[in-house]
Design goal:
Blueprint (H helix, E strand, L loop, with lengths): L6 H4 L6 E5 L5 E4 L1 H6 L18 H12 L4 E5 L11 E8 L3 E8 L5 H29 L12 H18 L4 E7 L2 H8 L1 H18 L5 E4 L4 E6 L3 H16 L3 E3 L2 E3 L3 E7 L8 H17 L8 E3 L6
Parallel strand pairs: 11-12
Antiparallel strand pairs: 1-2, 1-5, 3-4, 4-5, 6-8, 6-11, 7-8, 9-10
Helix pairs in contact: 6-7, 7-8
């Protein structure tokens, strides 16, 4: 595949005016027609210096729009008389590298060049769209769990670090809850890994529906999720009960299968015994999760949030 031809090369031999402007509006490139037809059109000059005073404000506004991503049209008479003062129809549009390209033709002349510009502009827009999409994917991949679509463990830790800092400044409560999907290994062994992944996706969706918008839901491990929430011990326990109900309230449908899914939840707050630094939230929450699993078969089992001290 050959490299794309630079846009200034496309208009090098054009009879119409072509100019390439930097973010500071200074001319980076002007084709021969521009240099010959417009007095003062040379690299380094501020483009507005060759615009008549009456059109200065309008040109500045339109160039700013073009730099922001718009394609703009306007008609002006350039300074010092272009071909005896004839007016020029301009089309400005953004190009790669934060530049703005301008294509001008004297009013009444052959419009074929604008058709050429249209094709070039559409090609540039499509390439920009593809690049934007790739950039979004590249920035999100490290932070999103590929199976469930919730935050990765790394991103949860980063968000929780910010909440911990705010808590130290303002004394606000924060909680870390570990949610373990029970029986996932058995589901995978009997139903296959695809069904196991579908169960995880369903649990992730139900968790996200249960928490508030500013709370964080992430993947903590193979069969575990982590919730980082702004809540004290009582609030965390109430959320745990809502989560268990949301997950087990109805079976998870995978094709023609309907699977009953349950979770155990262990948690800790920044005021729980044994929590002195942020990392302690996870270790105390893991201990609480083991206790929740141990008592799952009890009437009130399956949930354990470490007791708070000094409240």
């Amino acid at each position: 595949m050959t490299d794309p031809v630079p846009i200034e090369t496309l208009f090098r031999d054009a009879s119409d005016l072509f100019v390439l402007l930097g973010s500071d509006r200074r001319v980076r490139h002007a084709n021969p027609a521009m240099r010959e037809g417009v007095r003062g059109a040379r690299p380094g000059v501020d483009f507005l210096e060759i615009v008549p005073e009456g059109s200065y404000a309008r040109m500045a506004t339109e160039l700013a729009r073009a730099a922001g991503g718009a394609t703009v049209f306007l008609e002006v008479e350039l300074a010092d008389g272009v071909r005896g003062g004839r007016r020029v129809e301009w089309r400005f549009f953004p190009v790669d590298g934060g530049l703005v390209a301008g294509l001008g033709r004297f009013r009444g002349e052959d419009p074929a060049i604008l058709e050429q510009l249209g094709r070039v502009n559409e090609e540039l827009r499509e390439k920009t769209r593809i690049l934007d999409h790739i950039q979004i994917e590249l920035t999100q991949v490290p932070f999103i769990d590929p199976v469930t679509g919730v935050w990765s463990r790394f991103q949860v830790v980063e968000r929780l670090t910010g909440e911990w800092s705010r808590s130290e400044r303002y004394g606000s409560p924060i909680s870390c809850l570990l949610v373990q999907v029970q029986g996932l290994a058995e589901i995978r062994a009997r139903q296959g890994p695809f069904v196991g992944d579908e169960v995880l996706k369903a649990v992730a969706r139900r968790l996200k529906r249960t928490v508030r918008d500013h709370d964080v839901v992430g993947r903590y491990g193979d069969q575990r999720f982590v919730l980082a929430v702004v809540a004290d011990g009582d609030g965390a326990r109430a959320l745990c009960r809502r989560v268990r109900q949301a997950v087990s309230g109805e079976p998870v449908a995978v094709g023609d299968r309907k699977l009953q899914v349950a979770v155990c939840i262990g948690g800790a707050t920044n005021r729980s015994e044994g929590v002195e630094i942020m990392e302690d939230l996870f270790s105390v929450a893991e201990t609480s999760l083991l206790e929740a699993v141990r008592t799952e078969t009890h009437p009130e089992g399956g949930i354990h949030v470490a007791e708070e001290i000094g409240v």
